[in-house]
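Lay summary. Proteins are chains of building blocks that fold into shapes, and those shapes determine what they do. In this project we predict the shape from the chain. Here is one chain we studied, written as its sequence of building blocks.
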Amino acid sequence: MAIKLDATLQFALTSDDRSQLRAAAKGKGLGHGRLVRALALYGLDHLDDPAIAEYVAKERLEAQERTHEVAQQAIAARWSEAEGEQQ
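And here is the predicted shape, written in a compact code that computers can read:
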């Protein structure tokens, strides 16, 4: 009996990541969603693998950097708005 897939998950990628993923899926003869599912399940089964841990650590660092950049942009925008109001 087939497993019922009853949940979805969305996440962000760069345009280049998405293009690479779609090309890889096409090369394997499946849709990109199925390839992502296979890769996610493999990753979950191998979380203790040092190579997977390295990718997880890299993503954690990159996410922190993205958050910091967005926060800096928000602060800069707020300060420029506040300076405009004072004039």
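What the prediction tells us: The CA atoms of residues 17 and 55 lie 14 Å apart.
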